[in-house]
Amino acid sequence: MVTAVSARPTVVRRSVAAPRRQAPKWMQRITGTLSFCAPSVATRLLAYLFTRPRRQKLPRHERDWLLAARARPIRLSTGELVPLYEWRDQAPGQGVLDDAPLPTVLLVHGFGGRAGQMAGFAAPLVAAGYRVVAFDAPAHGAAAGRRSSLPEMRLAVQEVAAQLGPLAGVVAHSNGAAAVLVALSRGMQAQRLAFLAPMPDVEGFLQRLAAQLGFSQRVAKATQQRIEARYGLPFSALKAVNLLPQLSQTALILQDHDDPIVPLAEIEDLAQHWPGARLQVTRGLGHNRLLRDAASIAGVVSYLGAPQQP
Known about the structure:
Radius of gyration: 19 Å
Shape: globular
Mean pLDDT: 89
Largest sheet: 9 strands, mixed
Order of helices and strands: EHHHEEEHHEHEHEHHHEHEH
Structural class: alpha/beta
Low-confidence stretches: 1-19
Strand content: 15-25%
Oligomer: single chain
């Protein structure tokens, strides 16, 4: 249920973060003990957990959505192959894929997600006149690999977008939205943006995750330094509000009031600092149900509007 819509929301600072999903007590005892007695081991463990997405079984409705797409692999500059899924108003097997180019909307899943999660947007966007494309990022969905991170996700987003050409729009979820923001700041071309439960501050997320799992904040900080050194990139370079001055696009941001992953206060701060951003707040959808909520999907399609033919 939608509870608020605002073009430039007035931010009310909250001292209470999003509800936490705590790890089992036995796990917290182990990680807490490691944090105190063997902080270097705890740091390596938290870095491992932070960069290893969990794969989940593909639900039947997502499988049906993907089977309706034209699928093909594309190769990234890293040598990795990722599956690309395309929906358009053309019967399979008829004509050449790019015989009649259409304005393209790219769907980007989040950390631990998959293209199928985003595919509920495909049919409505195709009906509106778009070509719709999604992909499984490395270590996600049907793609190979075991490790992923925001820098790696950004690279995948940017290279997929470059192969598709200038985009009419992007619909992105969670960490995928964060990756899109970084990619846009580095030259990715897209006209309109729709973000669902975006992740505006990876440092804050790491701190919350560490607390939920029972690691100390000292270990969380050491983990951040370890990951920054691995990628040669400070977390501050990935923070959304630091990237906004380099962006000119408008955006629709959908966020649930009780999202257990991303606090609403972070999203309000992002919208406040983003001229032209429109924040829409829901209740009862959490972090992932936005992706299959009919009203949220309709709102995104309406926001993107009718495509302009190339």
